[in-house]
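--- STAGE predict ---
source: upstream dedup step, 1 unique chain passed
mode: sequence only
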Amino acid sequence: MTRVIRVMLADPRRAVQREDLTMGSFGARAAMRVRKRDARASAGVARGGRHQLAERFEGVGEALSRGGEGLVACAVVGRRMAREGVDLGEALEGLRTTTVHVTGREPSYDAVRALGTAWAEEALGYVHQLSCEDALTGLAGPAHLRSRLTEVYRGAEQRGEAVSETHAIVVVSVPAAAGGGLSGSLAVVRLAERIRLIFAGEETLCQVPGRGAEARALVLVRRTPDLGRSVTNLHGLVEVLGTAAAPARVWIEGLPASVQSAVPLLDELARRA
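--- STAGE serialize ---
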């Protein structure tokens, strides 16, 4: 026969079940050890000990047990949790759990602010390190091109220039495998390699969806005397990627006078046949 002893912990929502398999006093002694263990943990919390501290919050608990707010420790743990990919909600919950266990009160505004600010700064630093380019093709996405266009228009306005006279969009379109997949990705890679041979400087290269089974890229370039020859050379490089039914195409698209008109133009270039 198996007898089940149910032992309630300090938290009434949790319980530990021990099975007395021997019908003797072993089960009772095991239950006693559980009670003593929980009593020691509770005593540790009462003394500001580390038994019930949330993971990574030992430094915060020690600072609180000495009567401080642990702002420096909060900042340290905030940065650490951001680096480890822990979300802010979980970090704040850890701070609350630790503060309540050690002091019996909610964390202060300053402690929450120190942890949250450090977490946000670390996370933002990580985001800024990320590349806006696709790792496979080296081409940026449409969002980055829109941002670059905004910068170009802002700079031109400060210098009293017209973007329609200083910059243009080079559109490159070649056939790709229907349905995308690996074949479609390889077509974009081949296209990107050839574009970079011609526009290897400060130009912004962007991949857009294109129409149907098509790989299409946009290049934000400066209008220079050599632009026409560069486009001709680029067409010669990408021509081999086309077919008789779907030849490769390269053309220069002028930019409008305002950025408000330029952004819709990008969407149109992605759809234009």
